[in-house]
């Protein structure tokens, strides 16, 4: 796919890939073999009929393609941009055995963008109204999927969002150059056009508790994600200039600090920026730092490139933009001057035997201490669920890391009438897995509303 040249894009927050033209999309779609037993559908967490939407594209029937897509996925423009297709649907594409798999994600993005350009978005047919009311807590990918599915089934849905903008991690966590905010709002608008009521700046657990919502609604779905950042707990971590990735990206993405002073949200524009971690969030942070003017943006990762959990495409884009990768490196201490971070003391690592994650465990190399000059550090090593809702909801059980305990096959929690899914249950994962959990929960909510059986 054509994209902005690296030396140009590091100076702006515009989207990097340009997307397919109609001719490019048709040519790519014609590569699909329309297998009789398509493995790609099984590789998709929301079970999109992949050959079913690709074939109409090959025939130039883009309306038909988007209709097939939206039977299973109400957020195609988002999924086409940020889902790890290379580890899911594209990974099991028959063509991948001998050549490049069909670019399923890019075709998904194409039809969603094509529909938007026409200015007409078809609202799917809905079943007769049931009179049942459902509260969805969190307007992220899980909550939006639950809302879309339940609306189709005839239920009334109200979405409660703590922030002033809906979208969850899509709006505060993923940078503009990877997922433009206008696209997120377009997908959210589709859910509200279907009939969802959206209430923002409403913190469930403070504004109202889950128990209070249960007095007004027949069921509650909790999809509040994982927004509590992790830190390493090393000396000097409270120095100025050290951010969690959550705060750093929220300031830049949702609060638009990169447009300061038009948007009055300050952010430290470091010259030597170190990002700790090896996932997509780390890549987003390092690439954001470049666009904020960093002369040197570094990824500090304790394992090797082979073990990095980030998407191949995100690592590739970071490399193109000359992000520096310091592999097998572990920060052990931050050193400051006048309250601001100035250096980071590190240890070199070597890989030992695999640990519980299946990746080789990093082991410190004795006597390998060294220092790296830094003026900004972004810690992107993971996050946990915010404990607010569990703390204010009696009868809602959580695991030791604060994740809500919910049945994987139904989304049911330990509290009658309350369902949960996405990162609040699994811990930080992918957009499409959160949507898959939302799909499962929506079906279970529907069954509960119809039968009253828990």
What is the number of helical segments per DSSP (H or I, 4+ residues)? 17
* Radius of gyration, taken over Cα atoms and rounded to an integer in Å: 22 Å
Main pleated sheet: 5 strands, parallel
* Structural class category: alpha/beta
Helix content: 25-40%
Mean pLDDT: 95
Name the poorly predicted regions.
none
Q: How much beta, percentage-wise?
A: 15-25%
Task: Classify the oligomer.
Answer: single chain
Total beta strands: 16
User: Biggest sheet: strands side by side, in what order?
Assistant: 3-2-1-4-16
- N- to C-terminal distance: 48 Å
* Outline: globular
Task: Tag the structure with descriptive keywords.
alpha/beta, globular, 17 helices, 5-stranded parallel β-sheet, 454 residues, 17% strand, 16 strands
Topology:
Blueprint: H1 6-9, H2 22-29, H3 39-42, H4 50-58, H5 62-69, H6 76-82, H7 104-118, E1 133-137, H8 141-152, E2 156-160, H9 169-172, H10 181-193, E3 197-199, H11 210-216, E4 219-222, E5 228-229, E6 242-244, H12 245-253, E7 272-276, H13 280-291, E8 296-300, H14 312-320, E9 324-326, E10 329-337, E11 340-354, E12 360-364, E13 370-373, E14 376-379, E15 383-384, H15 388-391, E16 418-420, H16 423-426, H17 431-451
Helix pairs in contact: 2-4, 2-7, 4-5, 4-7, 5-7, 6-7, 8-17, 12-13
């Amino acid at each position: 796919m054509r994209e902005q040249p690296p030396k140009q894009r590091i100076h702006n927050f515009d989207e990097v890939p340009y997307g397919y033209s109609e001719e490019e999309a048709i040519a790519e779609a014609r590569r699909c073999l329309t297998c009789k037993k398509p493995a790609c559908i099984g590789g998709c967490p929301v079970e999109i009929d992949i050959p079913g939407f690709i074939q109409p594209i090959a025939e130039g029937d883009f309306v038909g393609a988007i209709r097939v897509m939206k039977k299973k996925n109400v957020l195609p423009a988002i999924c086409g941009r940020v889902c790890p297709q290379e580890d899911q649907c594209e990974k099991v594409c028959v063509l991948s055995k001998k050549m490049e798999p069909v670019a399923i994600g890019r075709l998904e993005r194409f039809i969603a963008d094509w529909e938007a350009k026409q200015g007409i978005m078809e609202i799917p047919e809905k079943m007769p109204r049931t009179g049942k009311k459902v509260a969805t807590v969190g307007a992220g990918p899980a909550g939006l999927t639950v809302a879309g599915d339940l609306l189709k089934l005839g239920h009334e849905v109200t979405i409660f969002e703590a922030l002033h903008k809906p979208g969850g991690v899509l709006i505060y966590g993923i940078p503009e150059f990877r997922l433009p905010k206008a696209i997120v709002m377009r997908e959210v608008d589709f859910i509200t056009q279907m009939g969802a009521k959206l209430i923002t700046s409403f913190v469930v657990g403070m504004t109202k508790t889950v128990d209070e919502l249960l007095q007004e609604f027949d069921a509650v779905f909790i999809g509040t994600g994982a927004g509590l950042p992790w830190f390493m707990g090393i000396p000097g971590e409270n120095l100025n200039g050290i951010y969690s990735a959550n705060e750093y990206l929220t300031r830049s993405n949702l609060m638009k600090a990169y447009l300061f002073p038009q948007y009055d949200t300050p952010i430290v524009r470091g010259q030597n920026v170190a990002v700790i971690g090896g996932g997509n969030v780390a890549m987003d942070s390092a690439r954001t730092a470049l666009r904020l003017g960093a002369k040197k943006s570094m990824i500090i990762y304790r394992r090797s490139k082979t073990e990095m959990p980030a998407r191949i495409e995100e690592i590739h884009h970071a490399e193109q933009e000359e992000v520096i990768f310091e592999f097998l490196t572990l920060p052990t201490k931050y050193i400051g001057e006048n309250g601001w971070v100035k250096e980071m003391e590190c240890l070199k690592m070597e890989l030992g035997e695999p640990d519980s994650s299946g990746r080789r465990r990093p082991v410190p190399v004795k006597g390998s201490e060294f220092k790296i000059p830094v003026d900004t550090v972004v810690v992107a090593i993971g996050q946990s669920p915010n404990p607010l809702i569990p703390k204010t909801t009696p009868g809602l059980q959580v695991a030791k890391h604060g994740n809500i305990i919910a049945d994987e096959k139904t989304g049911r929690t330990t509290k009658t009438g309350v369902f949960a899914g996405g990162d609040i249950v699994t811990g930080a994962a992918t957009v499409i897995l959160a949507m898959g959990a939302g799909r499962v929960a929506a079906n279970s909510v529907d069954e509960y509303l119809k039968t009253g059986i828990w």
